Batch of 3 targets.
Target 1
Amino acid sequence: MATRSTVPKLRLLLARRIRAERGRLGISQEELAERTGLHRTYIGSVERGERNVSIDNVERIARGLGVQPQELLSDEGK
Amino acid sequence: MATRSTVPKLRLLLARRIRAERGRLGISQEELAERTGLHRTYIGSVERGERNVSIDNVERIARGLGVQPQELLSDEGK
């Protein structure tokens, strides 16, 4: 949840990029959860920007999506 | 510390990139801590790859270093 003056923009970008890459692959949150070993509800909350995701989980999610981690933090592919 | 089968490579890359960018600026861990509002000992443990840093803190550290967050997860500038 965004509080005070600083909106965690990176978190929201990550959320959007994961949704976009998952959509590109045409897989469900359940499928991504299975690929990453994370829980479906966790994936859902990450995609809504509710989670302050750890770097280790960014790596797992990137691997599950078949992209480089930095691609999930970059606006280029928007 | 790397355990079991999967080494968190991204975490170690992040650690190395933060050290490199801080060195480029010629600032101490104390100075980076002050710029980010994080604790000096936390910065130290991040730079040793001991911390599973959150995405919000990656953003704060990138801002403190004056780089884009994805630059901290990319090997290009090595």
Note: Residues 9-66 of chain A form a domain with the 434 Repressor (Amino-terminal Domain) fold (CATH 1.10.260.40).
Target 2
Amino acid sequence: MEKRLVEDKLKLGVCYYPEHWSEDLWEDDFKRMKDLGITYVRMGEFAWTIFEPEEGNFSFDLFDRAVTKAHEFGLSVIMGTPTATPPAWLTEKYPDVLNVAQDGISYQHGARRHYNYNSENYRKLSSIIVTQMAQHYSSNPAIVGWQIDNELNCEIDVFYSEADHNAFRKWAKEKYKTLDNLNNAWGTVFWNQTYTNWNQVYLTRKTVPNSPNPHHMLDEKRFISDSAISYAALQADILRKHAPNHWITTNGMFKHIDNHRMTTEILDFYAYDSYPNFGRVIEDHSEKPLRDRKWSWNLSVVRSISPNYAIFEQQSGSGGWTTRLEQPSPKPGQLRLWTYQSIAHGADMVMYFRWRTATKGTEIYWHGINDYHNQPNRRVKEVEQVSSEVQQIGKKIVGSSYQAEAALILNYDNEWDGEFDQWHGPYATKSKDAWIKAFQYNHIPVDAFNLHSETTVVDLKRYKVLIYPHAAIVTKQQANLFSEYVQQGGNIIFGCRSGYKDETGQTYMKQFPGYLSDLVGVTVEEFTRVAPFEQVPSINFKGAHDIEANDFNEVLQLEKDAEVISTFSGAHFEGKPALVKRNDGLGSSYYYGGVFNLDLASLLINEFELNNYQEKFELPEEIELAIRQKDGNDYTFLLNYSDRPQEIVVKKEFRNMLTGNQVCGRVTLEPYDVLVLE
Amino acid sequence: MEKRLVEDKLKLGVCYYPEHWSEDLWEDDFKRMKDLGITYVRMGEFAWTIFEPEEGNFSFDLFDRAVTKAHEFGLSVIMGTPTATPPAWLTEKYPDVLNVAQDGISYQHGARRHYNYNSENYRKLSSIIVTQMAQHYSSNPAIVGWQIDNELNCEIDVFYSEADHNAFRKWAKEKYKTLDNLNNAWGTVFWNQTYTNWNQVYLTRKTVPNSPNPHHMLDEKRFISDSAISYAALQADILRKHAPNHWITTNGMFKHIDNHRMTTEILDFYAYDSYPNFGRVIEDHSEKPLRDRKWSWNLSVVRSISPNYAIFEQQSGSGGWTTRLEQPSPKPGQLRLWTYQSIAHGADMVMYFRWRTATKGTEIYWHGINDYHNQPNRRVKEVEQVSSEVQQIGKKIVGSSYQAEAALILNYDNEWDGEFDQWHGPYATKSKDAWIKAFQYNHIPVDAFNLHSETTVVDLKRYKVLIYPHAAIVTKQQANLFSEYVQQGGNIIFGCRSGYKDETGQTYMKQFPGYLSDLVGVTVEEFTRVAPFEQVPSINFKGAHDIEANDFNEVLQLEKDAEVISTFSGAHFEGKPALVKRNDGLGSSYYYGGVFNLDLASLLINEFELNNYQEKFELPEEIELAIRQKDGNDYTFLLNYSDRPQEIVVKKEFRNMLTGNQVCGRVTLEPYDVLVLE
Amino acid sequence: MEKRLVEDKLKLGVCYYPEHWSEDLWEDDFKRMKDLGITYVRMGEFAWTIFEPEEGNFSFDLFDRAVTKAHEFGLSVIMGTPTATPPAWLTEKYPDVLNVAQDGISYQHGARRHYNYNSENYRKLSSIIVTQMAQHYSSNPAIVGWQIDNELNCEIDVFYSEADHNAFRKWAKEKYKTLDNLNNAWGTVFWNQTYTNWNQVYLTRKTVPNSPNPHHMLDEKRFISDSAISYAALQADILRKHAPNHWITTNGMFKHIDNHRMTTEILDFYAYDSYPNFGRVIEDHSEKPLRDRKWSWNLSVVRSISPNYAIFEQQSGSGGWTTRLEQPSPKPGQLRLWTYQSIAHGADMVMYFRWRTATKGTEIYWHGINDYHNQPNRRVKEVEQVSSEVQQIGKKIVGSSYQAEAALILNYDNEWDGEFDQWHGPYATKSKDAWIKAFQYNHIPVDAFNLHSETTVVDLKRYKVLIYPHAAIVTKQQANLFSEYVQQGGNIIFGCRSGYKDETGQTYMKQFPGYLSDLVGVTVEEFTRVAPFEQVPSINFKGAHDIEANDFNEVLQLEKDAEVISTFSGAHFEGKPALVKRNDGLGSSYYYGGVFNLDLASLLINEFELNNYQEKFELPEEIELAIRQKDGNDYTFLLNYSDRPQEIVVKKEFRNMLTGNQVCGRVTLEPYDVLVLE
């Protein structure tokens, strides 16, 4: 079942921590929120010690007063369960709840997320606090929903406590039944790693040198994901039982969790924390970096989990901890731009992080809408503007769906395997980056598509074109699915390093690309990494002769009725096939024996007629185009990410939904400005 | 009370380790020292096992013979307490004395400084050995003074043994009385870090991810400083009691110790170990790096502790350990230059490290005056020259005071807070560097001024100009002090990120710059880091239009009768105030919404008439000017740090104190040469 | 006694892991090996759990079937003892067998080489499995020899388990007898490290800051080497006893083992694992990097252990682990080129690693001859060609000796001391690199010469020229040996930092270069590192005036009848001697007060008439020349490492041994091609 947020109009909210502030401030704060047109306030998620100051002793006074006060001003409250930060009394009394590094050294109280998901004590104590809260708030009219924990797997996404080792042993036993099966799956015959008793089985530990068994590592990621989901489910079950009228979500999106499965199984919809200004501080020396616009891709992934989703933390000021991540302030207009970025991609609720900048602790530099001084400022004014605009458009746009005819395929197995496998993971990152840019700069909306065990050809057929850049792990069943998709009219593009691994991460005793070979009509004759200190070969395509064939080269050999559309030069395999197309049934497949770059992706994208926006607009590269559709109506978002005015041409008559004016002809978008057209 | 070294003339000394060398060498060594004009010899500080070969068994024979022999040649002995290096028997028997890393792993015997200050066992065993030595040597006519331990907090300046955790808990209890107070001071409401029992309180521990509570961190530094001072006091008390006729000092200067307070409370004066050739190996890619000349600033800080001080280790050869810190040999003249650098800034005693290069251990490449081979060499000859010169000038110069009309303000709270706070600490480092260079290259002597809880306006008024580049933590009391200073005629300069924090490191709920706002007449309208990948804005000042406004921009808003003297360009806050001056009473204040660089500091410095040397000299940038004054007489030092001859113009008649010649008109200083004029 | 491999002709082999593959594949695999002309197959070395699935329960079935099957196809089997990878049951039951990091944290099951050499349990269990295997296979006609363990000290070459600490204490006691001796040797008087009870003695431990006693460190390396050899000897003794007709070797070459002594004492010959394509991924920003050709030097070192040796792993595909070391595929011809590189330098047996690429585990990207898919490929074809050529030349070449008139001196003491001593170790690395290149690019064969305690002048006299770039540790005995060598007609070249240390790593109380001073006729007047941020001086030599005197400068002072042949410029020691030659008896010595670079080494090399190949060939730099000689016949190898055709001139009539054709005049070597001439 599709898990999507259901609202009656677009909603704005803020994150607010009543426990941080003098109670004198609350009334004014809530009143100002109301005046700003804010309807949701999130609270509670770091307040375990407030709720349970000592074990078994519960206290709801502070939050009861805050919830009541918020409700007086018409605000609805989203309550967070406080398990991301266990109390000091808890970790001191039950040190087994702590997370532990791979070398056996415990993390301790003093920051956040220092617990593990498998400690019996932690699960028990979490159940108790969540039960208490659910019971207490289930009938409170201010409360509408719950956030489970906060940012699962943020900060740290590996776990090696004794409880984790024990749970993993049990998990492995359930999965493999026999040690023979486990030994086969992990290929333990290599380097004599064979297990002869279950008590020898652990999560990966400190090895000489730091290179554990790769198949074991892959299962470790699966186990971590299962552990996190199981821990969230523990809470979700309690909330469902005791607060059946409230919705349940959690805010992501971090590594080593199958967020899709988690959402399907236990949540009502998925929520995301969006901080596009990381794009100003994360190193990105690639060609034409996307910076904050890269977050559009993150939102596409979020959308693949919940077509209509919530933003639980929308960046509203400069960000950073005392010790790291130092970000600049948003430029005038960027706060608004990023809000529309979220909405354009499917958000029906946007909550700003946070109402007021914290004055204490590690996050005093994650600036909220309000500054420490609580005086009016530019960011509050921007929220005011957004809020008034959202009033205009909120009813129409809410519930509408983002439109895309192409998708990049994601798959947790390949993501997790590629994290440590240097022979496909880094290529996946590079190729994804190239494709995202090609779609953005060509104004073609794109989805993320999560390939999982129950994916059907009907799911695939929602797209004209699918791109699966480096599908290292491909099962026979998946290969069949892709063939069916192509025969029924789909088009699919693969890059090198595809199809050579099975689900354990072991390699097939087959020619590359394994089970995909039939579909794409090639085998790989020869392959090599492009090493440092070597000349990079190139390929020709559509008249271009100098497209770098960087990182990895697979020399293709035609096995079927495939057509060579590109060959290598500048290597000993000069003139050999590099890019091959094969028509099959109503569709086609492409296989490129390399890692995609922006040049090649941009050329390939034009092989297909995708979202033919050219009839409606002429757009410079700096503008993102997004379309949401409901009841046959298109709502078009044009977002200017650049610090310069951008001129566009509107070729048909549109209505500017934010101003009510008609729009046609040459239009200038100011820096960071936004158009929403219908 | 000012703690200054009192000597009757300038003195030279050497560090000598009799236990390292065959006893056959001692007589010749001491004789040659005497012949060189050396009067002090330091010994004993790494010899615990010699003094106490097994627990409770003491032996003074070796050092008695050495001290007696030195005294035969007229040398006075400074004795070091040997606690920097506990014996192997001690750490093996009492492992609780060892220092421990934050993750809980102990340091072990094998280098130095592996103990902690709070172990009861270590304090007891230290008391015993120091008592024994003090009693034994109190009436020895050769001994004149004591060095406590060696280089406190060198190598490592954090401590996490169980004894430290326990002592910190006690320290916190004494400071805060109640957990409520502690929770408030550390802002533990953030991320649910609230402590509900004192047994939950520790020094910072391994957290997820490595970012402990910043207010906790700040207190940890204060605690470390208190621990070190308390440990030194333990020894000082014993020495005062048993050797009342000897002076007491220790040799610094390392992080996480309030050296000013330590000196005031327990020492007779402060001593420093000066190794300017670190300036050749420490990475410094800044504009016009100062290299060895940067040590002049270090000496200014030393002078702020003791106006007349001792150098206990003056670099006399190439330096480095076997494994790191590899330095070149001093060039001909540099040993002499650095000696005068020390003297020019206030040293009345200079001890060379060391008499002869060690032939064993980690420091075989910290070359002494003599080489391994003990044959005459260039460095010994340079010491000979220095010594003969010092005979000439020693009586006049001793006790004279360095003259400066400007000072940079230092403050331990801001230094320690800024160590981990990336939003002001790195700016302080950059701005300090810019100002030091501006003073050096403009030949304006500058002091360091330590702002502490008992600083009065009288203290401040010793200076025409004070510079406090990024005064993040500013209390109301301090702001008042600065206002008084300005009203009474002082001038003070602040940069961005000033006044926004209280003494806990929490931010005020005020507009920037907090309590300073009244004085400087501005508030901060808007601010941002200058992120990577962004254009750096610039400011105009005194006709220059291209001064970079790097790192951080605060857009100023006039609140009072302040005058805008510089505005921003190249940003969305184009034309807004960047640098503002405000006259108040007899003085003025400047507030710059940015991080200082050399261009700006050099222009600002000329706003004031400081040490008007131009009537006396024309000097190229390469020359440092320093003046010591006594009884109305000026002693002028001109130091050539460059490897080229430098031409200067002497505009008045001076006497070259080193040669006795009159000096006037054009004079050439040879590479690394020195003039001392009266 | 010289330990050399004795074969009747050149042999090829492969590494094969029958336990990895379905038994169905064996027959075809062995048959194809046979058809390829392969005669040796190595197996068994990672199969402990196959042989001993539970403690004390032995099973030889699988390998018996494999050995028998291999033998059916005429293959001889080399059996590896499986101790590099202990079974999971073993480490789980006996955790004391695990290796431990210096900070006390254990390594665990999950990769390989996680055991320590000194655990009594591990030694006992190793003895049992080796005894079982030796007894079982001693009379098996297929088995010809044994490989002990696999790659001793690979991955990790330091060991800090409790067993190691205890064994080290015992080792130190045996070496030093008394603590006084130990304290003297380690210079523990420095920093009060004196040991007063043997229980205080450990291997180096975690120190503040990471800089343990250097003399202690040097002994630690010696101890590690002794431990490794003792562990190998334990196995060798068992194998000799139970399988007296089989030869014994092990495959190296890794750090912290005296491979020469090990081979002399316990092996029949030495074997090496050669992976030249590391040269494509290891950072090398030096001038004219050698890349894969650098492995020729490694082979020279191997040859210094065993003049005729085996390659137990010859790279046959692209290499790398899942997580690191990613290498490109060998280019067409490189597999063959590298095989001849091994043979040219003295290999009489070459085993390819591996028969087929692993489909599971950490090494799925260490490609073998065959790909996963087991279909014919280019690499198998290359082996076919090599094999057919080796049939032609194998009988003639086998047992012949590589011819070199020059050698670089290696010495374990200096290598181990220089590992952490930044004042000579890094210079040794740089100078070695320069000399190797100078020999390669000038087509002069060169040997490695291991200087050890029993080296005689007769050993030295095998060479016209010896180069010992930075002989930091030089004993009086060694200095005498070099003098004798020169007097009897030898020529020897030293660089700076020579002769200043004794065998403990302490410095002599002598002028540099210590005991070498008499021989080279100089002392060092002054010396300095060339620091960063300083101008690099230069020297003149043979008309060149701009040879950089990088890294370190020693200013020489003539003490005897030496001749200055080069002086410094660009420093304060302008014009002072930099390079001095002294004739003595029939020979000469050179002393250069610096670190060698390619320019200088290339000029110095021409001071001597070495291997006058010019009468026979004109060769471009890209070609390596190597000559093996037997019974008065020269076999000349010309190897083209470049990716371009190279033209050479053959000036005398030769026979191409691979084709049987006569060769004379202009000849073109294709990329990666090889000529073997007689």
Note: Residues 54 and 158 of chain C are 29 Å apart (CA to CA).
Target 3
Amino acid sequence: MARHTFLLKPRWSDLDAYGHVNNVTWLEYLQEARVDMLFVHAPAEGSQGLAEGVLVVRAEIDYRRPMLLRQEPYPIHLWVSKIGGASFTVSYQIADDTHDGSSLVYGQAKTLLAPTDLATGAPRRITADERAVLAQFLE
Amino acid sequence: MARHTFLLKPRWSDLDAYGHVNNVTWLEYLQEARVDMLFVHAPAEGSQGLAEGVLVVRAEIDYRRPMLLRQEPYPIHLWVSKIGGASFTVSYQIADDTHDGSSLVYGQAKTLLAPTDLATGAPRRITADERAVLAQFLE
Amino acid sequence: MARHTFLLKPRWSDLDAYGHVNNVTWLEYLQEARVDMLFVHAPAEGSQGLAEGVLVVRAEIDYRRPMLLRQEPYPIHLWVSKIGGASFTVSYQIADDTHDGSSLVYGQAKTLLAPTDLATGAPRRITADERAVLAQFLE
Amino acid sequence: MARHTFLLKPRWSDLDAYGHVNNVTWLEYLQEARVDMLFVHAPAEGSQGLAEGVLVVRAEIDYRRPMLLRQEPYPIHLWVSKIGGASFTVSYQIADDTHDGSSLVYGQAKTLLAPTDLATGAPRRITADERAVLAQFLE
């Protein structure tokens, strides 16, 4: 129930010399979707800490089929797949819905994220308020 | 013997609002190092196919410590860690050498790469010439 | 009648360390708007040459007030302001409409563009078909 | 005497679908050169204000010939061409030296810059310390 969907319209400048959305830019797309989920659509209370200092600790991406320039935005589906004491995992799927109800999958990804005190660089534990926000996107 | 090192000087524009090289840009750094290894320092003969159509199929990155803006370039060490029939893996470590002979590691990564016929989008097998080029960077 | 409007949604990654859309990214926004006008909304016939090789010869931008991250897209208004024999000028205004009917202007810009034979790098004259396409956006 | 030169090595990711350094990226190159001049090579004393809040008010670029991917960095020459009460102008030329002593010019540009109190967004006057720093690059 918790899946969030972010619609991202590709830019011409996202294309590389192959005419595809460059593989690097995929990670930027995931970042935009995550910012939208955590900072915009999460309830205001309690999520401020998530907005102000969350570092990416690990990222993995599977590229299945190229994204091209098109008018229609790409749907990026994302959800919280794990909440630990001092880190959490966000999972992603970039996929179009097709007429027969199946999905045309472009790729999928996971990022491990750690709340961090940016002034000191020290990782910190997830607060109860933050946990409640993240739990809304848990799947 | 096969490890290649690419020196990458960070740009001010690589920084995000946290003052760190943005996590997305790490993947761009890996791409620059890979282009340098495969297209510039690989022998000219046989590597043209690698230059003209190699898609990233999977990427994984571990971020250990932030990269900041500095005058000294970051050394990106990379090598071919596996050669399959129709794909190969490049591994990376971003690390400074320290005075006592140890390494200060910023992060490490792997990318799985597949030679592709860009006109048709079809994957293709690695040729003998390409295999010879890749083998020089095998570790 | 000829003014074209492109709606551009800012990305988090467009922000620099000041929290503003970076001044470099403004030029990317103009490029996206231009691609939309010339390649997407121009009639298909005759505009192919414009899509395949138009170089930016000169750009000038006036920055009036910072663009920030927001949900609502920024309207980029653009039009062809001059058509010469071998070049044409596109003018831009980034502005919100306000309730009292006036505009809140973020900035304005001009780019001088030259159709070019990309294989040889040689500039070429604007064809009659291209001129007809451009004339639709003339103001 | 005051001209500063910044050597910028192009990245593969700077190229667009035409195989040229994209016109947008030129503005990024100028920004990198300016940061180097003002924040790195300017004397530490007095220049902190220039590092912490200088907005680009106007930019103009003339593109003469395309920059391509190459091993050799592009020399970006820059200097302060005017110092006003609350703004200053930096001029740029991207050019290779050639064997006969002439220059191969890729392009030239100007940016008008205004020190700004970022907390309030208000422009402010250039201090005496800042003026002394800028004067060292005046030509």
Note: The two ends of chain B are 8 Å apart (CA to CA).
